[in-house]
Each structure stands twice: as structure tokens, then as C-alpha cells.
Amino acid sequence: MAVNRGEPEVLLTPAEVASLFRVDPKTVTRWAKAGKLSSIRTLGGHRRYREAEVKGLLADSGVNIGEEN
């Protein structure tokens, strides 16, 4: 397993992912349970999603996202 020694990996909350896809956060959780999107669990049991994977899924789905200010 490769260790990333550069910038820390950006993780998104279910609400942030849901906002990008314009769906309910529960839908994002269902996608993770179905294996469409991998999630990381925090020590408190909350799900977090890798920004790079989410943006790749957005690109594959044809959703156009702009740069945030």
C-alpha cells in the first residue's frame, strides 16, 4: 500500500457530496453501501468520501462542476 507523503487527502462529508450531485445525503450513503462510491469511516463512525474519487464519479456522470471560490 502506497503512503501519500504530499498533501493530505481531502475528504468530503455526505452533505458535501450530496450538494455536488444535487441529491439527498441518504442517497450518497446508499451509493456507498451499494459499492458505487467507497467511504472511509471516522473514529466516530461517520462516513467520509475521497474528493478525487467523487470528482471522478462526477466527471463520469457528465456533471459539470466549476471551481469553488
Brief sketch in words of this structure:
By secondary structure, the chain is an alpha+beta fold. It has helices at 14-21, 25-34, 51-61; strands spanning 11-12, 40-41, 47-50.
Radius of gyration: 13 Å
The proportion of residues forming helix, as a percent range, comes to 40-55%
N to C succession of SSEs: EHHEEH
Shape: globular
Low-confidence stretches: none
Average per-residue pLDDT, rounded, comes to 86
Largest sheet: 3 strands, antiparallel
- Strand ordering within the main sheet: 1-3-2
- Please state the structural category: alpha+beta
Q: Given the structure, what is the number of helices?
A: 3
Polypeptide structure, described:
- With 69 residues, this protein is an alpha+beta fold.
- 42% of the residues lie in helices and 12% in strands.
- The chain has helices at 14-21, 25-34, 51-61, and strands at 11-12, 40-41, 47-50.
- Helix 1 (14-21) packs across helix 2 (25-34).
- The model has no long low-confidence stretch (mean pLDDT 86).
